[in-house]
Each structure stands twice: as C-alpha cells, then as structure tokens.
Amino acid sequence: MLNQTPDLPSLASTVVDWQKQHGRHHLPWQGTQDPYRIWLSEIMLQQTQVATVIGYYERFLVRFPDIGSLAQARQEDVMPYWAGLGYYARARNLHRCAQELAANWDCHFPPTPEQIAMLPGIGRSTAAAIAAFAYGTRSPIMDGNVKRVFTRYFGIYGVTSQRAIENLLWATAQGAVEAAPVELDMAAYTQGLMDLGSQCCVRGRPDCARCPLKARCYAYEHGVQQELPTPKPRKTSPERECKMLVLRSQGKILLEQQVSPGIWGGLWSLPQYGDTSEIEAACNHLGQSSTAARRMAGLLHVFSHFKLHIEPWYLRNDTLQVAETSPRQSWIAIEDLASTALPAPIRKILDGLFGPYGRELPLVTDAPADTG
DNA sequence: TACGCGTGGAC
DNA sequence: TGTCCAAGCGT
C-alpha cells in the first residue's frame, strides 16, 4: 500500500455522491431489491459485458420470473435461455441453487452474505453484491472493476490473482466500508465502484479528469495508471515476424532511423516490411523487379517482451539513384557501417553480407530456418 | 494455487 | 489479426 494520503473516511461517500450524479441508473436489474433478479444479473454478468447480458436477462426473466419457477424447471428447459452466453456451469449452478433455495429456504435468499456464499455458483463477491443491493448489507465486493479502482487509488502493486494481493485488496475494501459513515447507501456505493471502474477507471485510457477520487489517487498523482493493476506475466512471449530489405547501390546501404520511443529508437535499421508483397512494392517503386531480390537466412531476435523472426532479403543494383525515398531513410557507405549505431541483429545481417571489414561475402540463400 | 470455463468487444 | 480481457467461481 503506497498511497500515503488515502482519505478512507470520505472514500465511500465520495463514490456514493458520484454514483448518484454520474453513475448508471437504468440497467434492467437496477431499481429493484428483489434478490432473485439481482442474483440472476450478478451471475450473468460474471466475466460478461453488460451489453451482452441485457437481452439474455430479459428473456430469462419472462420464462422464469421467480425462484420457484426456476426450481421447478428441468435443466434442459433452462439451458436454451443461456445458450450463447458462455460459461455454462453458471446456468447449471443457477438451476441447482434455485432448487436448494426452494428446498431449504422457502424460495428466499438467506439473510447474510456468508450464508449466501455457500450456495452453488455464488462466491464471496457475488454474495456481497446480492446482500448489498437487496438488503443494504455493509459487505464489500471485489470484482475486476474494484480491483482496478483500488490498485490505482491505493497504489497496490502485484498480480491481483495472487493470494497475498487478493487478501490485501479484500482487507482494503473491508476497511473502506468500516471507515464509512453509518448512513452510507451501500447499494449506491457498490454500484458506484463498478460504475467508476467501467466508465472512468478503465484499463486502457482511464478518464481521470472525470474521476471523483483523483485528488488522492496514487496512480493519478504518480502517473502510473498504465502500470496498475499489475498485468499478469506472459507465459510465452508473443512472436512476430517481419521482412527486411538490404538494398545496395554504389557501395551504399539504405538504412532507416527508428523513432523514439519505440523498438530500437534512435538506432539505424533496415527498411522493414510485413510480408513479401510489401517488398515487391518497394522494389517496384524503385523501378526494380523484386525477382532480383534474394532471400537470406532468417534469424530470431529475442526481446525482453517478444520474439522477432526476421527474414532478410538482399538486392544489389548499382544503377539505382542514390536518393532517399523517405525522410528517415539514408544511404550509408558500407565502410561506415562499423561506426553506425546498429541493433545487434541488423549488424549480424550486414556483417554476414559484408563482413566486419566491409567485404562482401557469399550469400546464404534458401535457408528459411532461424539460425539464431 | 493455478487453471479451465465461452463469447464478444476493444485496440 | 491477434491478443487481452470482461460484474468470478469451482476444482
């Protein structure tokens, strides 16, 4: 917890005030305290976006208007109303849960979040949401929205799916509720956190200007919104591939200065293309048939966060006019390559062609495999 | 504890 | 066009 100045007592009230003014109020499952409708919406909304859920929610309610009607149905009558929504264990658990409620609770929900969380398909967060919306219970939720808001506001680093971070987030959420005034509108607070997370404190480009918490938000103060929540480490780094063209004319090579920020920013690299047709287009632009270009041995370059498969092509034509074809391009004499700022794999390609002393060496052709 | 579960949206 | 991920839970 890095935030030195979180205003815990006013946090919840700030969220409630914002929710009442700027939050969502017209979603189909709002404006009711019916635990059945709240429950159904919470289950459908697990890992599923609001826009997707709305239609399913309304069709489901027409067919199964209450716990009793759902409990009496056969599972094969329920599943068609879930088809296309995904995560079908949710529907099976929903049906089982309705039958448990009918059998043990007279078609009502238990009174406490702890008891609600014992029902099939309902975990700690969903139970807290049902209790907050239906009963006003002061029990915090912890979904993707709240994780985003809290990791940023409090400056909580670490992968949120890990136990220690998860525990810290729950404790923080509990602390925020306990510090709130007794008259706190718990339904508005719970909804407000989710509205903040989905409308304002979004992952890609958070709209901090509109955020009621920015005055004491750690991520806003330190400009680290993009670093929080801490992203899960990739198992396998992504792989990309590209073609590069070694264009030689009159003892010079066409190089391209890379932009900063960016990969190899400020260094000189070879003109780069997504696929062979782009190389052909570039050759044609120079009035040169691409059939004269020869493919060289490919190589693999490993960055910290991805792997790049490079397929170099070599084209020599000493009749080409020695004029740059775009502002960032420049013809560099082969004997000057040694003193040019080249990324490692580019130097390897050029050294393979011309040697470290600028001598042209035999080409390796038709060798598509990576040579490292 | 980490992973599987489904589909569609965003970039 | 691919990759990530969204109102999580169960195992």
UniProtKB/TrEMBL annotation:
GO-annotated biological processes: base-excision repair; mismatch repair
Keywords: 4Fe-4S, DNA damage, DNA repair, Glycosidase, Hydrolase, Iron, Iron-sulfur, Metal-binding
Protein's UniProt keywords contain Cytoplasm: no
Gene3D superfamilies for the chain: Helix-hairpin-Helix base-excision DNA repair enzymes (C-terminal), Hypothetical protein, domain 2, Nucleoside Triphosphate Pyrophosphohydrolase
HhH-GPD domain segment(s): 44-199
Catalytic activity reported: Hydrolyzes free adenine bases from 7,8-dihydro-8-oxoguanine:adenine mismatched double-stranded DNA, leaving an apurinic site
EC top class, as a word: hydrolase
Note on how the cofactor is bound: Binds 1 [4Fe-4S] cluster.
Its EC number(s): 3.2.2.31
Protein name: Adenine DNA glycosylase
Source organism of this protein record: Pollutimonas subterranea
